[in-house]
Amino acid sequence: MEKLVIEGGVPLRGELKISGAKNAALPLIAATLLAPGTHVLHNVPNLRDTRTFLKLMEELGCSYDYTGTTLNVDTTTINHSEASYDLVKTMRASVLVLGPLLARTGAAKVSLPGGCAIGARPIDFHIKGFEQLGAVCTLESGYVTAAISDGLVGNTVYFDIPSVTATENLLMAAALAKGDTVIKNAAREPEIGNLIDMLISMGAEIDGRDSDTITVHGVKQLYAAENRIIPDRIETGTYLIAVGATGGEATITDCCPSHLPALLEKLRKAGFTLSEDESSLHISSPRSTEGRLLIQNTDITTRPYPGYPTDLQAQFMALMTLSGGASIIHETIFENRFMHVAELCRLGADIKTDGKSAFVTGKGEAGLVGAPVMATDLRASSSLVIAGLAASGKTVISRIYHLERGYENLVEKLTGLGARIWKER
Ligand code: EPZ
Question: Vertex 324, ends 321 and 325: CA angle to 5°?
Answer without folding.
Answer: 80
